[in-house]
Amino acid sequence: MLENLTQRLARVVKTIRGEARLTEANVGDALREVRMALLEADCALPVVRDFIAAVREKALGEEVVGSLTPGQAFIGVVHRELTRVMGESSIGLNLAARPPAVILMAGLQGAGKTTTTGKLARMLREQKKKVLVVSCDVYRPAAIDQLKSVAAQVDADFFASAPKEVPLDIAERALAFARTHYHDVLIVDTAGRLAVDAAMMQEISELHRALMPVETLFVVDAMQGQDAVNVARAFGEALPLTGVVLTKLDGDARGGAALSVRQVTGQPIKFVGMGEKLNALEPFYPERMASRILGMGDILSLVEEARKGVDVEAAQALADKLKKGRGFDLHDFKAQMTQMRNMGGLSSLLDKLPAQLAGQVNPAQLQDDRQIRRIEGIINAMTHLERTQPELIKASRKRRIATGAGVPVQEVNRLLSQFEQMQKMMKQLQKGGMAKMMRSMKGMLPGMR
Questions:
Q1: In angstroms, rounded to a whole number, what is the distance separating the alpha carbons of residues 1 and 252?
Q2: Which of 64-68, 283-287, 423-427 has the lowest mean pLDDT?
Q3: Long-range contacts of 63-69 (CB under 8 A, 24+ apart)
Q4: What values do phi and psi take at 19, rounded to 5?
Q5: Taking each helix axis from N to C terminus, what angle separates 70-86 and 286-293, rounded to the nearest 10 degrees?
Q6: What is the pTM of this model?
Q7: Any idea which architecture 3-86 has in CATH?
Q8: Which pLDDT score is estimated for 146?
Q9: What distance in Å separates the CA atoms of residue 263 and residue 393, rounded to the nearest whole number?
Q10: 3-state SS assignment for residue 356
Q11: What kind of fold does domain 101-291 have according to CATH?
Q12: C-alpha distances in angstroms, 258 versus 114, 269, 349, 409?
């Protein structure tokens, strides 16, 4: 995510490093590079101009304090301005209304409205809300069925509609149903088009007047870049938007939409979609996003994901087992892989690490969801004794396991090699290796003590 922008800004800091003071000359050179980086990231030109002017004003003549290098001082100014452009603070959903609180989803076809509706429903269900979802998209084939399927996956109630019905009638009936069945939230998925047109805008405006939603969320594909900004402006002029959801940010190496859409719409980015899974929706924190853009990582979001994804009791049981001197076996390895999958895989976590740490990870070794499931399948093909005593797994057992899991023997060998690496790491932790690991990290993470 935002890979190109991060790399360009990292080079800017490198070039300005070593100076004793930020001067008009070196700031000017750095800002030219920043300007090019932002334009290449598909950031809107008026936003770039405003951003560069603000950074120039604050950076010129700034003294280098203590151990800070000019590069660090300059990046501090850039970080603060990135945060300002993206909204300064996180703003969540406002559901302070007489139930049901209505959320209206707006955006073009293909932006991810239906999937985002499911993700939002899942998030609200985790907050113990009773959620009803309804589709008013009577034009796109299978749109209603798609939402029905998504609702079932996130345990939200689904209000049935049909392609022959009028969207306004569907919405009014769904609202009446939500009221009589005591739902806390009604999320209305609307129709989109491939481009902004008058008919779509009139339809969604009528839905807005009838439903009087507490939240009108504009869902936009971050990979559209500059086009996302133009579409955001059109929707902002037609509807009283309350927030923006940026989807597919995990696949966008440019990131210009994240920097532009807040300023163009005047409304906060409330959530970002970081993948296709229904748990891949994150609240948007401008300061954290600025840190990620600048290669500083997002440790707070990483910790929050860990809290949600980790089975605390299982982790404690493993810690107790290691403390008592009992070895780390393939049962434990499988459990660790499963927890990693629940947290979105290593690639998701890597995106939130500071660049110094992320750069030490070999991308070829990252486990995606499919690879983790394959590992689980191979371990499932083993006997209980083999999982407990992996040293027993020799050539004949490897062939049997490979046949049972439906994979080549090389895959079994690769798994055992990965397991041995993790086993060595666990032994280090048993011997107090954690202290050594933390000491080695101090030099890489600013501010660590």
A1: 5
A2: 64-68
A3: 63/21, 64/20, 64/21, 64/22, 69/17, 69/18, 69/19
A4: -80, 155
A5: 140
A6: 0.64
A7: Up-down Bundle (1.20)
A8: 92
A9: 60
A10: helix
A11: Rossmann fold (3.40.50)
A12: 21, 8, 20, 45
Structure tokens, 184: 């806390």
Identity of the amino acid at 343: M
Structure tokens of 51? Answer: 């951003």
What is the pLDDT, as a whole number, of residue 326? 60
Question: And the tokens for 58?
Answer: 């604050």
Residues 6+ apart with CB under 8 A from 79: 290, 291, 294, 296
How confident is the model over 345-391, as pLDDT tens digits? 555 555 544 444 444 444 444 455 677 788 888 999 999 898 888 88
What span, in angstroms and rounded, lies between the C-alpha atoms of 196 and 230? 10
Token output for 281: 């929706």
pLDDT digits (tens, 9 = 90+) for 84-135: 888 777 788 888 788 899 999 988 888 888 999 999 999 999 889 999 999 9
H/E element holding 106? Answer: strand 101-106
Whether the per-residue pLDDT at 188 is higher than 90: the answer is yes
Q: Which of 109, 117, 112, 102 is nearest to 153 (CA)?
A: 117
Q: CA 53, 58, 62 angle in degrees (round to 5)?
A: 140
Chosen CATH of 302-442 out of 2.60.40.10, 3.50.90.10, 3.40.50.720, 1.10.260.30? 1.10.260.30
Distance in angstroms (rounded) separating the CA atoms of residues 146 and 321: 45
> How far is residue 290's CA from residue 259's CA, in Å, rounded to a whole number?
9
- For the record, the structure tokens of 252 come out as 């966008």
Which of helix, strand or coil describes residue 441?
A: helix
